Amino acid sequence: MEFAELIKTPKLDRVTLLRSFHPPVEGTLCITGHHVIFSSRKDSTEELWLLHRMVDSVERRITPTSSSIILKCKSFRVIHLEIPNVEDCINVANSVEWLSSIEDLTLLYPFFHRAMFDLMEDGWTAFLPEMEFSKIKSHSDEWRISYVNRDHYLCPSYPQAVIVPKNVDDDALKTIAGFRHLGRFPVLSYIHKETKAALLRSSQPMVANGNKRCKEDERLVNAALGTGKKGFIVDTRTQNLAQLAKTKGGGYEPEMHYPLWRRIHKPIDRYSTLLDSLMKLIEACNDTSGSVDKWLSKLESSGWLSHVKDILTCACLVAQCLDKDESSVLVHGGEGMDATLQVCALAQIILDPDCRTVRGFEALVEREWLQGGHPFTVRCQHGPFVSPAARTKEHSPTFLMFLDCVYQIHQQFACSFEFNEQFLVLLFEHSYASQFGTFLGNCDKERKELNLAQKTVSLWSHVNRPEIIGTYLNPMYDPNNKVIWPSVAPQSLVLWSGMYLRWVLNPSPQMAAWETIAEIREKNKELRSKAIRLRRYLMELEREAVDMGVLKPPPLPEEVPLVGS
């Protein structure tokens, strides 16, 4: 397909751009195969470059006296373009609609984008499973790396290398894959460094109404338990939904076959329920004409913070089982590709200080989300402005919900994270539309088939450059090696204004405040360093003076007589 076929009007003059925090500006509009580009062609005025992929919906406003289009973005941004000619306006709207809904991933911008910087690190090889396994091996030798999923024939949504108990062979894994939904057999997600308790994740067992049994599956999950220990199975569905799943061939682990495991149901909403909630939230955030009571009512009725609370509560429970109870945990729901990944990733952030660093968090996203099989292309196909006709059950802001939960922990422990909230916003935007290939595809198998590592640039290669990563560092960071326990009380959870209100409320004052904090911290660092150098210099001068006899050495402290002597 040629992009030119979809672009009826590639260039327009005398177009007026209206956007948040900027005065209206007249200029030239260009439609390319991947971008909407606007330029006033004047000095000191910025251009607008918007990826078609970021556009969620296009609204046309045609009247006898004017014509305009409104571009509503997956990033919650709303852009107005006033176009004098009606025919041109319709052509532009149609082109953007067509180009924003292209399904062939090889036609998207990451396959055409070329890095304009020297690659200091290849992000595609920065967080391989083998590298993560070497860390686990230093804490426990009860695990091995298996390539039973080589070529992804056993489980398409798993990576080729997975970490499993050492005493479970590959033939057993093949049997277990047939017993678990979509072949997602239990794999290791995390080992607690202190308690050695294991965190595993999988999909539901296919026990059906007859309570089918798989002894190999029972042996695998029991291998994660220490001697004389019991574990917890955390099911992210309600008990009724888990029971209903048995009628469709799924279900949960029967107690009679898993006697060493206690099952706990911690229901977490997913799929279209989250998208409905996000749509209501963004509608409330964009409504600036109502009263305070109306705003608070809309915020509450969206249910967004209730979903945040449910996920954080479940993650805290998992972390508590691993840390306080010193017990292994298996997490799953139905497919194990949404709520399961949210909970497992958040539990690691609570427990592991390495996950609260920039590189550790990148490794976590790579390990738990990208290699863990979260279907980014499907889930992030649309945002809160999508029309009902274009929606499907598969569209869901699952990853955004995870980032919001991370933000909640971040704002409660502001000094324990090396990265700032802008880093989380960056990941959110690139998961929906990007010039990089990191979030393309639904699983590792698709990314291999698309040959992304050779044909696109990794987001990690870009963001980890010294001149870039500094923008996303937290000036208040003070390494904290302890477990951090976030509060899930209603008073502790807040609306993430830096995400949902950034196109409604001008963020400039807050950004200026953070810049001032960064300057103060940097100045403090310089003064501390200077003070240390001055102390060393003074000590050297004192030693030289003593050696020359100019200064007597300080007298030794008098001996304190012992009691009773």
TrEMBL record:
Q: Which family does it belong to?
A: Belongs to the protein-tyrosine phosphatase family. Non-receptor class myotubularin subfamily.
A Pfam family hit: PH-GRAM_MTMR6-like
Protein name (record):
Myotubularin-related protein 9-like isoform X2
Q: Which CDD domains match?
A: PH-GRAM_MTMR9, PTP-MTMR9
Q: Which gene encodes it?
A: LOC106473276
Domain Myotubularin phosphatase span(s) in chain numbering: 123-500
- Show the InterPro entries listed in the entry: Myotubularin (IPR030564), Myotubularin-like_Pase_dom (IPR010569), PH-GRAM_MTMR6-9 (IPR048994), PH-like_dom_sf (IPR011993), Prot-tyrosine_phosphatase-like (IPR029021)
* Coiled-coil spans in chain: 517-544
What UniProt keywords are attached to this protein's entry? Coiled coil
Identify the taxonomic lineage of the organism of origin.
Eukaryota, Metazoa, Ecdysozoa, Arthropoda, Chelicerata
Give the top-rank taxon of the lineage listed in the UniProt record for this protein.
Answer: Eukaryota
